[in-house]
Amino acid sequence: xxxxxxxxxxxxxxxxxxxxxxxxxxxxxxxxxxxxxxxxxxxxxxxxxxxxxxxxxxxxxxxxxxxxxxxxxxxxxxxxxxxxxxxxxxxxxxxxxxxxxxxxxxxxxxxxxxxxxxxxxxxxxxxxxxxx
Length: 132
Known about the structure:
Elements: H1 8-16, H2 24-32, E1 36-39, H3 43-49, E2 56-57, H4 63-67, E3 85-88, H5 94-104, E4 111-112, H6 116-122
Parallel strand pairs: 1-2, 1-3, 3-4
């Protein structure tokens, strides 16, 4: 069985076709309505730019294990498959792939933030500055 390789741009477009991506204001409203905001950025970016108050930090390499309601290593927040998850990365690329991965685990309400943390901060939404 041979398959034709696809580019990351094609993979990203395919992933995004399964998402109802949120703008920063939609994401803020979703959080106010009970969505779980999950920051998958690596520590160096959080240390440089700060964090979003209330966001759950789960680095990308642990995401599926921490949010799968069926996994022994899940976080307490990952109690059921109806969990509304909004994944954020730095600029809104890796988060799309991560959100689809969560959907494949049955978290059908998983989505991501268009523009990621940078869009959130640029919109003037709350950010806890990184320690100096």
